[in-house]
Amino acid sequence: MPEGHTLHRIARLHHERFAGGAVRVSSPQGRFAEGAALVDGQVLERAEAVGKHLLHHYESGLSVHVHLGLYGTFSEAELPMGPPVGQVRMRMIGAATDFGTDLRGPTACEILHPPEVDALIARLGADPLRPDADHDRAGARIRRSRRAIGALLMDQAIIAGVGNVYRAEVLFRHGISPFRPGTAITAAEWDALWADLVDLMPIGVRTGRMHVVRPEHDSGAPSYAKDRPRTYVYRRQGEPCRVCATPVAHKVMDARNLFWCPTCQSH
Ligand SMILES: [Zn+2]
């Protein structure tokens, strides 16, 4: 599933390409036809991301909310666009630009009214990629919880936008066991974790790739898969830890794959 930096990158691109001009919005597949008709031809005022959610705000006050889920993708294109290929839920064509985009396979693509946008944002936790993020509130919630920090970091109601890769990597970078309860995370540890996310995630927005391995630990050892980022632990189960050579461990936590170094992250 795309992590928050991917959604912020899409939001930034859509804002650059479409904001300030009218947009033709349609649903070639039909499943979003009614919603598309409500914003078709309107000026897009702003595109933004909150965690893993994308919002297109139109001049009428209506917003299109997209959550890509596991399978959703945007295909960006220059105009003229060809006939839709496959199940295109939403097609956007900028009236004042040379660009369009096709959305396929999202978990959510819907019209929201302003109170619904407010409710969506209110139920999401602190997003390290947003300047308005309330990291103290997120920290307080973590430090009140007996749940494992590995699960808390993935809880979008506490921290929005962090997914499986940043979860595993940031815990490794701070030597914190993913099984430690939130109540045992100190204020200083939370501040450091947060600061690291605030440093790391914008690199993902800027470059489209995650950079999480510090230069001194990057021996050039290959990534877990072709064209994927090099990681300390994510998807490296059984491989030697880049720092201490202990085999990286793997376990399923809350139905998601979890990776950690049992030596570097022993407590
Ligand atoms: Zn290690």
TrEMBL record:
Residues 2-94 form the Formamidopyrimidine-DNA glycosylase catalytic domain. The keyword Zinc-finger applies. Its cofactor is Zn(2+). It comes from the Bacteria. Belongs to the FPG family. Coiled coil: none annotated. This is Endonuclease 8 1. SMART domains: Fapy_DNA_glyco (SM00898), H2TH (SM01232). GO terms for molecular function: class I DNA-(apurinic or apyrimidinic site) endonuclease activity; damaged DNA binding; double-stranded DNA binding; oxidized purine nucleobase lesion DNA N-glycosylase activity; oxidized pyrimidine nucleobase lesion DNA N-glycosylase activity; zinc ion binding. Residues 232-266 form the FPG-type domain. CDD domains: AcNei1_N. The keyword Methyltransferase does not apply. One of its GO terms (biological process) is base-excision repair. PROSITE patterns: FPG_CAT, ZF_FPG_1, ZF_FPG_2. Keywords: DNA damage, DNA repair, DNA-binding, Endonuclease, Glycosidase, Hydrolase, Lyase, Metal-binding, Multifunctional enzyme, Nuclease, Zinc, Zinc-finger. Gene3D superfamilies: 1.10.8.50, MutM-like, N-terminal. InterPro entries: DNA_glyclase_Znf_dom_DNA_BS, FPG_cat, FPG_N, H2TH_FPG, Ribosomal_uS13-like_H2TH, Znf_DNA_glyclase/AP_lyase, Znf_FPG/IleRS. It comes from Nocardia neocaledoniensis. It catalyses: 2'-deoxyribonucleotide-(2'-deoxyribose 5'-phosphate)-2'-deoxyribonucleotide-DNA = a 3'-end 2'-deoxyribonucleotide-(2,3-dehydro-2,3-deoxyribose 5'-phosphate)-DNA + a 5'-end 5'-phospho-2'-deoxyribonucleoside-DNA + H(+). Its EC number is 4.2.99.18.
